[in-house]
TrEMBL record, chains A, B:
A Pfam match: polyprenyl_synt
A single BP term in Gene Ontology: isoprenoid biosynthetic process
Lineage: Bacteria, Pseudomonadati, Pseudomonadota, Alphaproteobacteria, Acetobacterales
Protein name from the UniProt record: Octaprenyl diphosphate synthase
Catalytic activity: 5 isopentenyl diphosphate + (2E,6E)-farnesyl diphosphate = all-trans-octaprenyl diphosphate + 5 diphosphate
SUPFAM superfamilies named in the record: Terpenoid synthases (SSF48576)
Family: Belongs to the FPP/GGPP synthase family.
Amino acid sequence: MLKDAGGESALSALSAFLEEDMHACNRAIVQRMQSPVPLIPQLGAHLVAAGGKRLRPLLTLASARLCGYEPAPDRQRHVGLAACVEFIHTATLLHDDVVDESTLRRGLASANAVFGNKASVLVGDFLFARSFQLMTADGSLRVMAILSAASATIAEGEVLQMATQNDLSTPIDRYLEVIHGKTAALFAAACRVGAVLTDRPIAEEEALDAFGTNLGMAFQLVDDALDYAADQQTLGKTVGDDMREGKITLPVLAAYDAATPEEKVFWERVIEQGEQTDADLPRALELIAKTDAIGVTIARAQTYADAAVEALSIFPESELRGLLERTVQYTVNRAR
Amino acid sequence: MLKDAGGESALSALSAFLEEDMHACNRAIVQRMQSPVPLIPQLGAHLVAAGGKRLRPLLTLASARLCGYEPAPDRQRHVGLAACVEFIHTATLLHDDVVDESTLRRGLASANAVFGNKASVLVGDFLFARSFQLMTADGSLRVMAILSAASATIAEGEVLQMATQNDLSTPIDRYLEVIHGKTAALFAAACRVGAVLTDRPIAEEEALDAFGTNLGMAFQLVDDALDYAADQQTLGKTVGDDMREGKITLPVLAAYDAATPEEKVFWERVIEQGEQTDADLPRALELIAKTDAIGVTIARAQTYADAAVEALSIFPESELRGLLERTVQYTVNRAR
């Protein structure tokens, strides 16, 4: 198992390594969020202010560089595509917060809480349309095929997640299918389009796809673990959100699987019937600790993380490859 | 002013003329709505069952034919693009019904009323992504540029509409900008992509764009008139919906403009403060009749309709051109 004590700073190191590209990407995001309709850049500014790690555009920029893409003042396709990936992600976040009725996002009031559900739905649609305009401007049919397929897969994942809600009999494979759709598919596409910009062998493109898929799976597993483990400040969202929504995640499935008959009754009332009191979150955290459900979840995340690192092995060793490997471990270490 | 007593049947005649293409388009719609996630085709079947006139895909098919596109078993780009246009339209309908909290659509329970808001948001996203996959499969960058720009304009129009809600000081030009965005832009794009399939002079493409824009403006003006005029069965939605939502449309702006001081107080309470009782709809209809606000709205629709017909004049006379002209007049006659 890969260990990295300095993992916490890996994402900042990767950002710093790609600093110029990231600045250009942030400029493109702000610029392409403009519209003659004032509410759109206003809501956009709220999202930009909320920050976020910009992990997905970083993956596009890093993948392009890893495949030898050499930017120049008139060669900035990687920047446009990184912005495009972030637009798709932001659109899905806006719609997720409406669907989940979330009031916090990254520790700040969510857009739907400030601007209302209507604005979040419609500005999400705008950003989604804008992302396709960015792809069209890029002009590669391969890129469009990858990103439009990923967009459809994300929506399918979200619908599937809705269908599993409140259902403790959801098989683990179904849960994995959900997180593949809602998270890993875009991570994979973000990496893959970086490779498409160059004419490297298809094996490198597939390796980056596998890297993104496995990193995305690890990332979402850890996110789901953090919902029962972290304090609100670390996570930037309300702890117990998933439980309140009756969302089926691995920590719950693992705790339920290892539960006594009396504990199963608790989970069924809380998750399936959705009948919850203030005392239920502490009780849930206690049962999750007792059954090591977080440990089970993190162990599975680590397996995906190891596969992500392994996928990079076809690239020669380099500072960038090392930074990507450390980013993978950072993703898992967030929950440790 | 163009008159056509048989206008009511014009849309059926156009559908019949393009019957084979329309069947192929309907098959493509059902087929591309498939997904391993069962709720997606289920919700899709609800939408297909609700019917609808499929006016936008008809426009794509008709425009392609008018420009001389000659289909063959292996030349069916017009069908794929017509389905694509309908997917974009359906996605926006699903999101509109969520935003407007509508319970009826075309006389049947709306998707959000049956499947819930979450499913409508997410399946809308899926259909939108699918439309971009259809465009990618078509492979024309010009088509993608037209349809992705139209998609962004639709979202802008919807956001602008939200910003004008409850605001009786909205200038008529702002209202026209809203309906251009939310309706006319997709009509124009639906027509334009039909022309792009052939290598006809750019003047024909621009003529079809102008035709679609003007037809879309007329169509939406009439729709807005019908909300204060038709009975529920004719319209397939609840009369007075727009008033209940405080939506700013031309019938209201015209009635308010011509109102006495006491009538202005009524409109301000109902539209701006949104305080409504059961007696208010009959009162509103009375004031709208008194000020001939429907007449004002239809007259403006007729001006756009005339411009739409005029735009077709660069094409030689033909049965298809005649059917399109009659379809324009049908659009206006719905409210007479």
